Amino acid sequence: MIRKSREFEKYFENTLDKEPALVDGVETELVFQDHSQSNNKDLSDDKYVVAPNSVTIDVGSYIKWRDEEWLVFTEEFKTIPTHQQLKIKHVNRRLKWLVDKEKKTICNNGDGWGAYIQNQTLYTLGVSFSGQHMPLANAKMSVYIKDTPETRAVRVGTRLFIAGQVYKVEFADYVSRVGLVNWLLDEDTKNPEIDNAELEIANYWDADSPSGAQPKDNPDTSDQKDDHSESTETPSEDVQPKVEWNIEGETRARLGRTYVYSVKGTDGSEPEVTEWITGDIEGIPFYVKDRNEHALTIQVKDNYSLVGQTSTIAAKVNGEIKNIAIKIIKKFG
Prior knowledge:
By secondary structure, the protein is mainly β. 9% of the residues lie in helices and 42% in strands. The protein is built from 3 helices and 24 strands. The chain has helices at residues 2-14, 149-152, 219-232; strands spanning 18-23, 26-34, 47-51, 62-65, 68-76, 84-90, 93-95, 98-100, 105-106, 113-119, 127-130, 134-137, 140-146, 159-162, 165-173, 180-187, 245-248, 252-254, 258-265, 275-279, 286-291, 295-300, 310-317, 320-329.
């Protein structure tokens, strides 16, 4: 182990691709290595980073290198832990939102958070339907961003600017990649009365109060208002209890095999799926053979390089999105 550690130290001292960088604002030196573009369909310029064990770096860390910002996506668990090796992606957008609407305080001390964003429309129909006939644009974006208290506080329904267009958070995943938050966003309509296009911050103003000041309740009338509402409200007899549901299917899929995923309610019902969403940041490891309002059929690609990759399948039922994580395993064994 001592000899292996010395070998790495000698390599790290003399390699040509070692450069100064900032890791979460801390100055250090890292080795940057190119990543094969054939593995990700040329959708991003990924890099590998090699660092000594003394450097504090993890999934979700921001790296400033050559005046560009990068986000750490995966970390390799070395069998011989002489050093650290991680994969990074280029931050292609900075997202901003208000954390205090009255004071107009922007997240991350006004700088916003760097994110890696990928268009997911290729993996969906790209349209939704109003009623039975009217098709509407329904582009989707997949956002990966550092897991922080501010990003965790972003709820489903939050509207965000991306490249001059507004999108609404439909689903948030904190589990699939520890250290990162994954949002699935649905295209929304810009509203100049509440959206600040110049700062690219959605819901910057209140619709009734462009100054951003929230209307205060009158303490002399609030009690009367509550008493009145209690006396006039009547429970609706048409409200149906909400049925909990989940996606059922194999979470470990073998190469070349075909699998069916369906939606089941906890009461045994089969809720109607309005949209199936498939996709992953590193490409889809399977083909979609069939989909309908109750089930999705996939066939895993027979490609050994996909072993170990985790992908997700999401379903949308009554405006609610849930997903299931699928790990690709070997064909036999």
